[in-house]
Design goal:
Helix content of chain A: 40-55%
Order of helices and strands of chain A: HHHHEHEHEHEEHEHEHEHEEHEE
Mean pLDDT of chain A: 85
CATH topology of the largest domain in chain A: Rossmann fold
Strand order of the largest sheet of chain A: 7-6-8-9-10-11-12
Number of helices of chain A: 12
Distance between the termini of chain A: 55 Å
Number of strands of chain A: 12
CATH superfamily of the largest domain in chain A: Response regulator
Low-confidence stretches of chain A: none
Shape of chain A: elongated
Largest interface: A-B, 46 and 48 residues
Structural class of chain A: alpha/beta
CATH class of the largest domain in chain A: Alpha Beta
Oligomer: homodimer
Radius of gyration of chain A: 26 Å
Number of domains of chain A: 3
Largest sheet of chain A: 7 strands, mixed
Chain lengths: 347, 347
DNA sequence: CTGTTAGCGCTTTCAT
DNA sequence: ATGAAAGCGCTAACAG
């Protein structure tokens, strides 16, 4: 086996036609007589022919292969894994394949990956840039006319389409939810102002309070690491505030879990004694914690949207990105797991 | 820009040499005069040349591209995501790129993916077969001489190298751990005997008990769905057994979490009042639950090993797999997160 | 050490 | 509707 590879010429010979006719069949041209086509397809099957995309791409215009590059910072993070799955769905159904790699938050590695992908002739790239990425890092790619979509993290100064989580919309919805339950002293727990998301998420929180005519009390915005441990710490500090809050919006799900831990340690039941809403960008419903309401971004949906955007650019051949920052999908979910408030936000 | 693509011939012209000399430089041949090489490299930079791997592969022997296909059932499952990351590490450092896709447990989709990957000329494939996959599904691939490594799930009758979790070794270690803590009534919670892993995992549990001279009490092997809810159910039934167990080994981490939920609902503290060990094949240390000891398989390590195995086969050009079922890495971790017992099992 | 000459497997005019 | 011929960008013998 594995003798001299079977090529179009072999199957042409076997079917008693010429290469070009075979090529037409391969491309599904309708201008081949049915009977000839059948004969050719039979030969293809019999000889175990496999199409050589490399050769086809080489000959074809532009030499751009039907592959889409995807670079994420950390595939180990479920958010990105889900994102990749979403991308894969649409990429696959459009007949492309996905080059997926994680750059592990390393800009150098990221550049290597981009280089390697270029050499393989990707038709487009979806990337969640590593921290420290400059817009200029994509200049070479862009000037060679390969469409790029930036996802999750924004990249100031880029001309590429950008797709981000609806941070402000999410915390605003979360806060409104707590207000509707009658809470008035609502804390914001976790994060530090040097994180990009922090400003956006506290922004939505502040907006909702302001809209409800409630003065934002900075004592209730409590900085802490965005981890489970940080959540434990934050709820401790929150409960020590003179005029105690009765509810909290958390920076993310990890913090929210920690807050629940901290509450239980104090014999308080999350949900009943103190309402907690987590911004769920990692774990999603899967590991739903009882008595924890979450606002969630749907990473798969985001992936699907990113891929759709990219394909549109590839097909329209217009490499001008300029697309807007875009919200994706928000779910406010009750402790039971039931979604009580679903909205679609798309720009 | 993006005018007629820059090719070797352009840079040859610019550097005043011939194509072949450029090609030699591209391949890092040492038989080009330093000065010429520099001139060529300068031209490469100036003209923004990008190497066309497709063309190179086409010309080169075998027409096999430097890409490795990876197919998992569900990228959304952290275990597989971690596996993919492990694979990527070694694949990248060997100068290959990874075609990663999820077949979503669908055999048809899986076949499509394999076909697509073949067309792209993958040098090898690492696959976690979808349920219902037949060994014969890989026959075409194998007979074309492309090395295949099967991971995570075993595929009866395949000639390909296979790599699996150390299921029995893991539960055996878990059970031994509980025995060493003085427990004598140890339950096994979760799973049904129609799952492949169930037999292996209960096997290790039974072995450990037997080795300790303890009669296995089938009343303590409790079937339940392998989910969080299943864990809640299982612990309820376990505590209702006449001669109550004092500890449990769980089929997996999801069940273990549910068991902890169930214990807390009964005002029992996991760890202190009832010892729980989870077989942690999904969530790993990241979402460590306080007071839960876990036995874990390191998916990244497994990925690295799978990739190493595959590359060895690719390089040795021997497509005969035949490799053994292999354990990977086990960690028994205390509730604090500290690893108290680490072993390497490699065959 | 460098240039010449042939293709790799496919698509694509252009004839027929 | 089908065939002949040219060539995508690169590498691999050989010559020089």
């Amino acid at each position: 086996m594995a003798e001299g590879r079977v090529t179009v010429i072999d199957i042409a010979r076997a079917a008693g036609v010429s290469k070009s006719t075979v090529s037409l069949v391969l491309q599904g041209s309708s201008s081949v007589k049915e009977e000839t086509r059948n004969r050719i397809n039979a030969a293809i099957r019999d000889l175990g022919y496999v199409y050589n995309r490399g050769a086809a791409t080489l000959r074809q215009t532009g030499s751009r292969s039907k592959i889409i590059g995807v670079i994420v910072n950390d595939l180990t993070n479920s958010f990105f894994a889900e994102l990749a799955v979403g991308i894969d769905m649409v990429v696959q159904s459009a007949g492309y394949v996905q080059f997926l790699s994680s750059c592990a938050e390393n800009p150098d590695r990221q550049q290597e990956l981009i280089g390697s992908m270029r050499e393989h002739g990707i038709s487009g790239l979806i990337i969640c840039p590593a921290r420290g990425t400059q817009a200029s890092d994509f200049k070479a790619l862009e000037s060679s006319g390969i469409p790029v979509v930036v996802a999750v993290r924004n990249l100031p100064g880029t001309k590429a389409s950008t797709l981000m989580s609806a941070n402000a919309v999410g915390t605003r919805a979360a806060t409104q939810h707590l207000l509707s339950l009658g809470h008035r002293r609502i804390a914001f727990l976790g994060g530090f102002s040097d994180m990009a998301v922090f400003d956006e998420r506290t922004g939505g929180y502040r907006d909702a309070l302001r809209e409800a005519g409630i003065q934002v009390d900075d004592e209730l915005v409590i900085n802490a690491p965005s981890s489970r441990a940080g959540g434990v710490e934050a709820i401790g500090r929150a409960l020590a505030v003179a005029e105690r809050p009765t509810a909290a919006v958390c920076l993310n799900d990890a913090v929210a879990f920690g807050v629940c831990d901290g509450l239980r340690a104090r014999r308080l039941e999350p949900g009943a004694d103190f309402a907690v809403v987590g911004f769920d960008d990692v774990i999603e419903a899967k590991t739903a914690v009882p008595a924890l309401t979450t606002v969630s971004v749907d990473p798969q949906g985001m992936g699907r949207r990113a891929a759709t955007l990219l394909l549109k650019q590839i097909n329209s051949n217009s490499s001008e990105g300029e697309a807007v920052t875009t919200a994706v999908r928000l779910v406010v979910r009750e402790s039971s797991g039931k979604a009580i408030n679903v909205r679609q936000e798309m720009a």
